[in-house]
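Batch job 17 of 40 flagged for manual review because the log was empty.
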Amino acid sequence: MYSNSRSTTKTSNKKKIIIITVAVLMAAILLLVALETTGTTNFFTSNDTDTQEVTEESFDIPPTEEEANAGDEAPIKQEPLEDNSQEPNNSGADQDDDSQSTPVSVVISNIGVYDGMIEVSAFTPDAIANGTCTYVFTSGANTVTKTTRARADASSSICIDEPFPVSELSASDEWGVGVTYKSESGNYIGTQQTVLQL
């Protein structure tokens, strides 16, 4: 009689283990289906490429609370003037070999005046290389030039935002803004232009 009780206990423990294992597997399957349905994972759909192309339309960063509150201070009119993917370099003294540079696109993701400071955020999705970003503000005969570092991250090169006082620009209401990215090696160069309304 003792062995019969022991056999029943072993069978009961095996049933519990099987039931728990099946429950855990079902929960994992349900979680995987839920993640796949919401688009969080991509296990069941095939993609020919492992990377997605980042376009200006798909790059949408919501403004910070400070930027949203400052919206009434300076209306921003962002219009592309022209897209020059490569600027010719005609100076003889300080000429890099830009003719062998690869043209890249530059995306201006944010431009505005916040708490009396001008901020311009830009990046290039086409190059992953440290370099420089040059911002040229033009209004009539007035030109203000600022240069910052560009830092490579996993998928792009980001122009480091270094705000400066709006008082450095004259009283003109409209400024043309050109952002030029150039890699340290000179292999990549690109420019994007827009308009800043003060």
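Reviewer: the log was empty due to a logging misconfiguration, but the result itself is present. Helices lie at 2-38, 65-69. Unflagging and moving on to job 18.
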